User: Fold this.
Amino acid sequence: MSVSRLLDQLAIQAGTVLAERSLMLATAESCTGGLVAAAITDVSGSSGWFERGFVTYSNEAKSTMIGVPAKLIRDHGAVSEEVAHAMAEGALLNSRAQVSLSITGVAGPNGGTPEKPVGMVCFGWSNRITTRTDTQRFKGDRAQIRRQAAEHAMRGLIEMIRNEE
Assistant:
């Protein structure tokens, strides 16, 4: 069952732009726990454009599954654009995909700090040539923050692919 009608629509749009360009996608998700991958695989035919999804919830998983350096996590924290960048690139390096997205953040209700409050989410999008990052601050409860993060990640993916033309 769908978490968000908008997320479903974004997954369909992403599938269309990926399929039109014969691109495969890999995802690396932390605070969303596979929400993007679930929305994507709800789309019939997604096996034609979705290569794999990594759920790297713990710091150890970020390091062992997609090669995010432990020192980078120690120096910047798991919720940082630096780690989101490394996650997006790590998803590509550990897959056959040509494009990737990553999400790492504080979904709450616990875990926030003054520097990294609940609702702060960092994103990465990579296409094997360039990697772009972004940080957003979402409001709401845990489910709302996770949904908004997944939607933002999908919008960024679609934008990155369309801007390659």
Summary: The first helix runs from residue 5 to 20. The longest strand covers residues 99-105.
